[in-house]
Amino acid sequence: MTTNSSKLATQLAQAKGWDNLLRQLMLAGKALHPLSDEARDEHSEVQGCQSRVWLQLTLDSNHRVAMLAWSDSKIIRGVLAVIQEKVNELSPEQIAAFDFDDWFASIQLERYLSQSRASGIAEVIRQIRHQAAVND
């Protein structure tokens, strides 16, 4: 199992039942560092998501990824905030090697995502890996 030291991920892992997990996701969405309105364009929009999702990754001076994202869905904003917290701890190389599926299972997230949401999040992860590699 992939370890997680992220605050938001830990809160999800400790949530009991769908109602508590949903509450934690909604609260996490409020912690999302959003992509600006101006940056939400066709270049940053992730295709293949049920909800609209925009994503942008940059590399900081310490060779760490800085992820900004936004969604029109409150639940997906929460999922993005949890992902953002983890991604912002990683280098591009670590992102390439990180087992997001295992991590989602360890924090209970995968079992509560509908198939369409899970497919959209899989596309978000593909975009994160792609943008991290391009920015490296």
From TrEMBL:
Coiled coil: none
InterPro entries (alphabetical): Fe-S_metab-assoc_dom (IPR003808)
Domain spans labelled Fe-S metabolism associated: 11-130
Any Pfam family: SufE
Family: Belongs to the SufE family.
Identification of the protein by name: SufE family protein
Native organism: Alteromonas oceani
